[in-house]
Design a protein that fits this description.
alpha/beta, eight-stranded mixed sheet, two-stranded antiparallel ribbon, about 45% helix
Amino acid sequence: MTYSALILAGTRSGGDPLAGTEGKPHKALIDLEGTALLERVSSALREAGADRIAVSCDHPDVVALARSLDLEVLPTGQGPSESTAIAFAALGAPLLVTTADHGLLKPEWVRHIVETTPQAADLSIMLAERRDIEAAMPGSKRTYLRLADGAWSGCNLFYLQHEGAGQAIESWKAVEADRKRPWRIVRRLGFSTLVKYALGRLSMAQAIEMLGLRMGVRANLVKAPDGLAAVDVDKPQDLNDIRELLRQRRA
């Protein structure tokens, strides 16, 4: 399977507090076991078989690192969705999208979403169940969306398999804005779906499929094979947890 990969590494408005506490000008440059986050992510994508790897970034230090790693550099937009739209126009489909702060990213997770996405699906979204996340990293604080089949958290892994997936990118902006307000997300699915959600009858796979239909695409849920796929470097505690996990692995 030939596909391209995009690493989102834009600069937050006002900077990133976590990068500052680590003495780095950008989160993508934070060190994990002697390797910058951006390099860890790009290495996993290469091992997973990505044909082209691009970085959406605007900080000069991140641009310099990306070029030293032989990664393509693309401009950023106003947010992740717009940056993805720019990359999708440049790289086309299929396109695997992830983030520079996915410090634990494993090649097998990338291969899993690529290989298990149905051929008819325009895009797939990987999510992990809460029980899997808590089993893999007890005490990890994540944002969950609870549906009939359990509580789910995003893994920052998206696979845009066909050109039709481009129709969904603009709609993602609204979903991103409401990711911590599940009722607003479900409301976009229509009244009957809202009733199913309220009655606890809507599964995550159904929600993604219906949301895709509302956006004019065929969307698919890919369940994460490992709860760690939902653990990114977003807060100081995340970084501490990941470093402790890696220390235990070395021991």
